[in-house]
Amino acid sequence: INNLFWLHGRDRFTPHPDLRRELMRQRGYFAYATHHYQTHQ
Q1: Which controlled-vocabulary keywords does the entry list (predicted)?
Q2: What are the tens digits of pLDDT across the range 3-40?
Q3: How many helices (H) and strands (E) does the chain have?
């Protein structure tokens, strides 16, 4: 179990920057969609 946890931690730590970029892009997209929707209202 310890090995599995270490592997998961490493896998999670490796793509952290890319994951953060993807998350920011999705958040920006959602924010843009919400703003666009409010503008239409």
Answers
A1: Dioxygenase, Iron, Metal-binding, Oxidoreductase
A2: 555 555 555 555 566 767 777 776 666 666 565 555 55
A3: 2, 0
Q: Is 18 left (phi over 0), alpha (psi -120 to 50) or beta?
A: alpha
Rounded Cα distance between 12 and 32, Å, is: 28
Supply the pTM of this predicted model: 0.28
Q: Which of 30, 26, 27 is nearest to 38 (CA)?
A: 30
**Other beta carbons within 10 Å of 30:** 10
Q: Cα–Cα distance between 41 and 10 in angstroms, integer?
A: 45
